[in-house]
Amino acid sequence: MSDKTINIRHLRAFLEVARCKSISKATEKVYLSQPAITQAIAKLEMLLDATLFERKSDGMYLTDTGAVFVSRVERAFELIHDGLRDALRFGGSKQGVKSLQLLNLVTTTQLRAMVAMASARSFSEAGRNLGVSQSSLHRSTRELESLLGIELLEKTSTGINPGKAALALARATRLAFSEIDQGRDEIHSLHHQESGHMRIGSMPLARTSVLPKSIIEFSQQYPDFRISVIDGPYSDLLYHLRHANIDFLIGALRFPAPGDDVVQEEFFSSEVVIVARPDHPYMKQTIDMALLERSSWVVPHSGTPTRTIFENFFTEAGFPVPERLVESGSQILIRSLLEGSDRLTVVSAHQVQRELADGTLRILPFPIRHAYRPIGISLRKGWRPTRTQQAFIDILRRHANAIESYRQALSQDA
After folding, report:
1. Residues 27, 17: Cα–Cα separation, whole Å
2. Are 79 and 261 contacting, i.e. CB atoms less than 8 angstroms apart?
3. From its phi and psi, is residue 92 left (phi > 0), alpha (psi between -120 and 50) or beta?
4. pLDDT at residue 31 in the model
5. 84, 102 Cβ separation under 8 angstroms
6. CATH code for the domain in which residue 324 is found
7. Same-domain check for residues 244 and 285
8. Distance from the Cα of residue 135 to its chain's centroid
């Protein structure tokens, strides 16, 4: 969510003028005077540094820029409306107020306050994050509760806890504000100002080559476009994806997909192999499952796809899962343990391709049959990338296709 979130009352005025093609007719929809609507449009155009309407004798008509922006605004209001409806349902409102009515009454300040509280869980922390006083934040949340006729925040011994209603509304608000930010970036792109901000969630399998190469190529074409790469475990990144804190994930996919609100696209698959240091004793002796079961390993945490492959590798062969384990999700620690001991690990070959290429690590000549990790991107269902974001995704696809073509060529040679 941008720190320069546009006032939603200005957006409502913009939307109604676009629909009515008239400021005077729009006054009946948004309950603002003509001068107030005129001023709202002027502020929007100044903030976006773009002309949204062409003023003609017979009405107000969207420019090409305005037409692009209006679709984002419409989607944003749909999301806020859905969030208000869910909040009323979860909160058990008995006032009989309808979400569509509330859509014309809630303010940007109230919604930003709810998002901050849902994330921070205390007025002091939320106030610091927003740069406002606790009293101002408290007033905004109480006004929103009064407007909806439900309790959004509950006091507990550990702080302030948002209920289901608050979480639903906060998530919808994040998604809506993200749409507005997307619209702002699209306007910049239309005017050949390729500036903006893209947030990418990255998992280990994407960090070694496909993502760095894509970022380098993209930045050469769009040097003013800012990229933030957020690392973390899959569960955390998925949460941030669903709450619009990141635009998409790249890395190992999950099957089945984590929910119907997430869309996955596979780019290529990477073989899972057993890896050790190049002078490991097993490199020069006959290996069998009994020997591997007695060995020491460093493996990913329980519940991860690669850990499941590791465990199935033994159980499907009728052997117990090894007990001499170190669990870690840190690639740096895993590599250090492998280099300094006789431990083994299971890992995607793509993930350690640099270490394999420079001879730091080596694949053990004992294959894990039918063990592949699908690599690709995960998107929010209904998410529409801007033209610049789509250019980055296309670059990702191209680099991923090159990796897949190389892998298939190696398979045929083998």
Report:
1. 9
2. no
3. left
4. 80
5. yes
6. 3.40.190.290
7. no
8. 32
For residues 64 and 66, give the distance between their C-alpha atoms in angstroms, rounded to a whole number. 5
pTM of the model: 0.82
Q: Using alpha carbons only, what angle is made at residue 283 by residues 310 and 269, rounded to the nearest 5 degrees? A: 40
Q: Which residues span the domain enclosing 338?
A: 269-373
pLDDT digits (tens, 9 = 90+) for 191-236: 777 778 899 999 876 666 789 999 999 999 999 899 999 988 888 9
Instruction: Write the single-letter amino acid at 78.
Output: E
139 has a pLDDT exceeding 70: yes
Tell whether 228 and 328 lie within a shared domain.
Answer: no
Angle at 197 between CA 247 and CA 231, to 5 degrees: 55
How does strand 53-56 pair with strand 59-62? antiparallel
pLDDT tens by residue, 286-342? 999 999 999 999 999 998 889 999 999 999 999 999 999 999 988 889 999 999 999
3-state secondary structure the chain: CCCCCCCHHHHHHHHHHHHHCCHHHHHHHHCCCHHHHHHHHHHHHHHHCCCCEEEECCEEEECHHHHHHHHHHHHHHHHHHHHHHHHHHHHCCCCCCCHHHHHCCCCHHHHHHHHHHHHHCCHHHHHHHHCCCHHHHHHHHHHHHHHHCCCCEEEECCEEEECHHHHHHHHHHHHHHHHHHHHHHHHHHHCCCCCEEEEEEECHHHHCCHHHHHHHHHHHHCCCEEEEEEECCHHHHHHHHHCCCCCEEEEECCCCCCCCCEEEEEEEEEEEEEEECCCCHHHHCCCCHHHHHHCCEEECCCCCHHHHHHHHHHHCCCCCCCCCEEECCCHHHHHHHHHHCCCEEEEEHHHHHHHHHHCCCEECCCCCCCCEEEEEEEEECCCCCCHHHHHHHHHHHHHHHHHHHHHHHHHHHC
Total domains present in the chain:
3
CA distance 399 to 217: 10
